[in-house]
Amino acid sequence: MSSSTTHTSTIGAIGAPSRRNTELALLAFAVVIPLFAYINVGLAIDGELPTGMLGYGAGLGLLAGVSHFVVRKFAPYADPLLLPLATLLNGLGLVVIWRLDQSERLQQLPNFSAAAPNQLMYSAIGIALFVGVLLLLKDHRVLQRYTYISMVGAIILLLLPLVPGLGMNVFGAKIWIRVGGFSIQPGEFAKIVIAIFFAGYLMVKRDALALASRRFMGLYLPRGRDLGPIVVVWIISILILVFETDLGTSLLFFGMFVVMLYVATERTSWIVFGLLMSAVGAVGVASFEPHVKQRVDAWLDPMREYTLSQQGVVGHSEQAMQALWAFGSGGTLGTGLGQGNSDLIKFAANSDFILATFGEELGLAGIMAILLIYGLIVERGVRTALAARDPFGKLLAIGLSGAFAIQVFVVAGGVMSLIPLTGMTMPFLAYGGSSVIANWALIGILIRISDTARRPAPTPAPNPDAEMTQVVRP
Amino acid sequence: MNKPLRRIAVFCGFLILALIVRDNWLQYVQADTLAKDEKNRRVTIERYATPRGDIVVDGKPITGSKESGDGNDLKYQRTYTNGSMWSPVTGFASQSVGATQLESIEDGILTGNDDRLFFRRSLDMLTGEKKEGGNVVTTLNTAAQKAAYDGLRGRGKGAVAAIDPSTGAILALASAPSYDPSTFAGADGKAFQKLDKNKDKPMLNRALRETYPPGSTFKAVTAAAALEHGLYDDIDAPTKSPLPWTMPDTQTPLPNEGNIPCKNASLREALRVSCNTVFGKIGSDLGKDKMLETAEKFGFNEEQFVPVRSNASVFPEKMDRPQTALSSIGQFETAATPLQMAMVASAIANDGKLMEPYMVSELQAPNLDVIEKHAPKEMSQPLSEENAQKLQDMMETVINDGTGTNAKIPGVTVGGKTGTAQHGVDNSENPYAWFISYAKTDSGSPVAVAVVVEDSKAGRDDISGGGLAAPIAKDVMQAVLDSKK
């Protein structure tokens, strides 16, 4: 154990600071910053302090306070950054959703309803789930027992949108289900469940996958039968792509699996295989599946797509180009909250495309800050994986953080036209119950793992021979 | 397992980095292009967010702004005073169709977004003032414009361009039929669609954007070339001009209009009665290169930016000898905008110096501070002072004693040239009636004007530059002279 890492990724350093007070101070910022943003929007749009200011501040403060209290009590050694960062993103997302609720252009759309109150409710449910995870999950290794149940659960969740009468087709992507007036994106929950399955499965099989291989051209080629699992997961991803026509969800699961496989086996060849297979799959499907193909075409030439949609050609959307204009018009510093025209994106402006509003109103500076916050969350997750003492914890933590990173990349990249657009949402920022709730659960699990990882090793029982015997700690 | 974990950390870092790089590309490198893209609705929103500055003539605005009303994300819309008369000057700024011509070229000043207003804008932002647009002050003359437009309106289609020869300032720029840009300035563009489909093309700015065969008015250019290249020196000495005259390399004699005394006529006489034979032969004797040189010095074969773009007038660069003869009397492929022919008249009136035509004299900041002032600039000298005065002498004979008597103004020296340009297949369509002229007082020439009338209602025989176009030119010159008093 080198002393330089003592403070951050200690494994059993006795008396490591719990950092709960750091977390509390950061949480105060995470509540105050969105509160100022909220006031800012109110002043910009109505010229007066928003009436819901106190309620909003109190609500967010209460949620943050409760979660902090639970962490302090039940996960005292947890990573101090994860909770404040997630709270900050959640708060900022709420502000921008509320800001878009005030937009006259969006209010004129059919099916318009104020989204902010719902999002506040979802956030509360999300934090309740977060609290529930910390209360009920005393040790993350318990999850290992549910490896194969998780597999079944994940498959069911992924297949739900395809069930007739339950699934919904939203602009071509079938990744939603509707239950009693609520739309749910099962993929968001599947993300967590499937990570549990992969972690449990790979922990058991890692040696077989890593060692039984032949060397060929500098790469370790796995045996045919060991290829089985990756091929199965690949096929499932392709099926998702074909039947749910969503590149993002497909990429997310396959990417997560490759990352976890690589970590479990330490074999670079898996990465090479993974990249090849995802490239083949994506290109193959994009060349014949019309919805995916259209998304790719729209990505290659957003202007043409915009022109087609303006001409009223069915199945084309102006969103991609509108998002690009929003980013461009924001420039370096942005127009200021409440003063942009990102509502020109219209449909899904507050969910899939919420980043464009941040881009226009907070500018390059704001987006960089937000991307760095996401980067920090991922970094804390990876650090948790490094610090974790058990392979299952490591795999689960890296799987969840890897999936989080891939999701941020796929969504933000899609909105910024770096890659074709997909139907997923920015974690915490975007409007959507499934996303907020699932991601709070994800943060809860990461906090649980990091608490276990940073918890000091139990002090050895007093031993009369203590003075003679040197205790060697791992 | 920690080594792959660290690599995954680096990989995730790359994902975030890729997003950051992409965002810098979008919001820094490409920001301006995206933000100023004409299809970006924000450009339109911004353009109409504050009342536009005005286009000013004779100290009075000819444009205005009013609130668009509810349900429109564009706050203000343009209004025009006497829009049909001024539309060739202003162009239009429409919420539904966009902006053209002067409204588009000076958009930055009119909206207040111009970089030259940056400091003021920043100051306004700090003091909480609303952004305001600046004004565009034009050189036009209301009385002259009115005379031109009223004259054209009574005669069907046509255009007028009038210039102050000593500076190049445009005094009148009229086109008929015209349109009122107020009718589609708002969010409803139906009126525009209708105008756009009208086969009389009311939205065509004929004074700048239509080229007509100039017919006999082009003989002024040919006469200038003859003097300038030394083919003839004395305007009263007989020229070597047989009648009939057969065009070189052909068996075809070039006809004159009627039985006019063109045999060996002097230059003055040839211009007075408009001899095709004399000027055709001059063009042929000089050859295409010398004719081209003089025509281009007058501004042919070049777009003018006043600052609104004017189409390039044409003097053909590739032609044989008979075609050169025809071109020299304003036929074959020779074509000119009314502005171009006004420039010809103005160069002659200004003793040979052609001033660059312009119509914006000043750009003003919202508080009327002058941001930019136009300084008159010499464009070229197509003929010497001495030759210019000879040509003036000839053109004054045309008015006093020739085809242009309709443009006579008592007590004022007027010089001019008529033209009747045939066009259409086998000259089947009604010819264009042309007239170019200038007026001169003791203190130089205050106005040169070119008028073209395309009249389908008048009978073929009635159409002659002197009958249809000269009275309009006279009214325009009179209006300018009156306003100078």
TrEMBL record, chain A:
Presence of keyword DNA repair: no
Pfam family, one: FTSW_RODA_SPOVE
Subcellular location: Membrane
Keyword Ubl conjugation: no
Name this protein carries in UniProt: FtsW/RodA/SpoVE family cell cycle protein
Alphabetical keyword list: Cell shape, Membrane, Transmembrane, Transmembrane helix
Segments crossing the lipid bilayer: 24-45, 51-70, 82-100, 120-137, 149-177, 189-204, 225-243, 249-265, 270-288, 353-374, 395-416, 428-447
InterPro entries, A to Z: FtsW/RodA (IPR001182)
Membrane topology field: Multi-pass membrane protein
Region (Disordered): 454-474
Organism (species): Streptomyces longisporoflavus
